[in-house]
From TrEMBL:
InterPro entries: B-phosphoglucomutase_hydrolase, Beta-PGM-like, HAD-like_sf, HAD-SF_hydro_IA, HAD_sf, PGP-like_dom2. One of its GO terms (molecular function) is hydrolase activity. It holds the Pfam family Hydrolase. It is an enzyme of class 5 (isomerase). Belongs to the HAD-like hydrolase superfamily. CbbY/CbbZ/Gph/YieH family. It comes from Isoptericola luteus. Its EC number is 5.4.2.6. It catalyses: beta-D-glucose 1-phosphate = beta-D-glucose 6-phosphate. This is Beta-phosphoglucomutase. Coiled coil: none annotated.
Length: 248
C-alpha cells in the first residue's frame, strides 16, 4: 500500500492551545447574551456541539439556531455588536484577539515533536484551519516557517470553499502540496474536522482528544484517536487505515 506523504494539521487545539482561548472568548460572548435574552445558559457543551471547528460566522449562526434565535447574516464589515450574525462574530474576534495579546501562544510540545518527526521523515505539511487569525497565531507560536501550505479562513473565503465539515479545505491543501488526498493524513480535534476528513478520500484521519471525547471523534470519522500527538511518531506515515483510500 502506498505510504502517506503529507500531513494536514488543523491549528486550534491540534498545534496550539488557542482552542482554549477560543472557548473562553465564545463563553464571554454568549453567556451574557443568553442571560440578557432569557435563553438557556451557554455551556462548554455548546462549543463542542455547535461551534468547534466551523468558520466563525457559521458557528454563530448554528449556536443561535440551537436557541431558536434568527438574526440577519450581515456582512464581514459589520461593527462588533449583536445586531447581526457577523456583528456577533466580529465581537468574538475582538475578544479572542485581546486574549492572544495578553496571554501569548505556545504550541503543544507533543505536537511540535510529531511535526518534527514527520517532516524529518520527508512528509509535506500543511495547516488547514477555519480561522482567519491563522497567520498571526502561527507567527506568535513561532511556527509560520514550518508549513509548506496554509489553507485558512481567508483562503476559503477568497476561493469560495465551504468550511468544515465539508472536506474542501483539506482537499485544497493536498492539491496545493501536489499530493493525492489518499496519500494524506488529516489531524483534527473537532467533530466537524474529523467529519471533513471522513468525507474525503484521505489515507488516515487522526483525532486529538482535547475534551470532545475519544468515542465521539471515532463516531464522527477518526480512524485513530490520541490524547496528544506526542504519542505518535513518523511510523504513522506507513499505516493508512484499511479501506480509507476508497472512502469518499
Amino acid at each position: 500500500m502506498t505510504s502517506l506523504r503529507a500531513v494536514l494539521f488543523d491549528l486550534d487545539g491540534v498545534l496550539t492551545p488557542t482552542a482554549e482561548l477560543h472557548m473562553r472568548a465564545w463563553a464571554d460572548l454568549f453567556a451574557p447574551y443568553c442571560e440578557a435574552l432569557g435563553l438557556a445558559p451557554y455551556t462548554p457543551a455548546d462549543y463542542f456541539a455547535h461551534i468547534d471547528g466551523k468558520p466563525r460566522y457559521d458557528g454563530v449562526a448554528t449556536f443561535l439556531a440551537s436557541r431558536g434565535v434568527e438574526l440577519p447574516r450581515g456582512t464581514a464589515a459589520d461593527a462588533p455588536g449583536e445586531g447581526t450574525v457577523c456583528a456577533l462574530g466580529n465581537r468574538k474576534d475582538e475578544i479572542v484577539n485581546g486574549l492572544f495579546a495578553t496571554e501569548g501562544i505556545e504550541p503543544y510540545p507533543g505536537s511540535v515533536r510529531f511535526l518534527d518527526a514527520v517532516t524529518d521523515a520527508g512528509a509535506l505539511v500543511a495547516v488547514v484551519s477555519s480561522s482567519r487569525n491563522t497567520p498571526s497565531v502561527l507567527a506568535a507560536a513561532h511556527l509560520a516557517d514550518r508549513f509548506d501550505v496554509v489553507v485558512d479562513g481567508n483562503v476559503a473565503a477568497a476561493e469560495h470553499l465551504p468550511g468544515k465539515p465539508a472536506p474542501d479545505t483539506y482537499l485544497r491543501a493536498a492539491e496545493r502540496l501536489g499530493v493525492p488526498a489518499s496519500e494524506s493524513i488529516v489531524v483534527e480535534d473537532a467533530l466537524s474536522g474529523v467529519q471533513a476528513g471522513a468525507a474525503g478520500p484521505f489515507g488516515l484521519v487522526i483525532g486529538v482528544d482535547r475534551g470532545v471525547g475519544a468515542q465521539l471523534l471515532r463516531t464522527h470519522g477518526a480512524d485513530l484517536v490520541v490524547a496528544d500527538l506526542g504519542e505518535l511518531d513518523a511510523s504513522v506515515l506507513e499505516t493508512p487505515a484499511p479501506g480509507r483510500e476508497t472512502r469518499a
